[in-house]
Model the fold of this input.
Amino acid sequence: MIDPTDIRLGDIVRMRKVHPCGGADWRVVRLGADIGLVCLTCQRKVLIPRGQFAKQVKQQLERGPEVPPFPPQP
Done:
C-alpha cells in the first residue's frame, strides 16, 4: 500500500482494477481531499477520494518532480 501523504503531482501509478479502456496506468494531476487522475491510455480524467486511492493503488511506477518548499516569509 502506498503512503497517501507521499503523493506528488506527475506521479504515475498502476491501479488494482483495470479501466474499461484496458489501461491500468494513471498520472496524478490533482492533490487534495480527492486525487485527480488521468488514464494514460484514453486520457479520461477521474477524481477518487484519498482513502479509496490509497487502497486501490497497486504500485508507483514513476515519481513526479519534487516541489521545493515555500521560501520563508519576511
The two ends are 40 Å apart (CA to CA). Helices lie at 50-56. The first helix runs from residue 50 to 56.
